[in-house]
Write a structure and sequence with these properties.
Shape: globular
Helix content: under 10%
Number of strands: 4
Distance between the termini: 33 Å
Strand content: 5-15%
Order of helices and strands: EEHEE
Structural class: mainly beta
Number of helices: 1
Length: 70
């Protein structure tokens, strides 16, 4: 896709905190390009958090639906 449908919201060197959006992507463009439209959630530094709970299998709304708790 050569980056089409993806936009970075931060750049190298930016300081981010929990909850800071890192990128935006177009699920429709990904699907139209024939790729799976599955999002992957990666925790790079859990800072002592012992467990995460992921909630899936539901419709969600940006900024309103909780999809992970810790």
């Amino acid at each position: 896709m050569g980056g089409d449908g993806f936009s970075y919201l931060v750049k190298v060197g930016d300081i981010v905190k929990a909850g800071t959006p890192l990128l935006k992507f177009s699920k429709a463009k990904i699907k139209a390009a024939g790729h799976p439209d599955t999002a992957i959630f990666v925790v790079t530094n859990p800072n002592g958090v012992e467990s995460f709970k992921f909630i899936s299998g539901m419709k969600s709304k940006t900024g309103e639906t909780v999809i992970a708790t810790y």
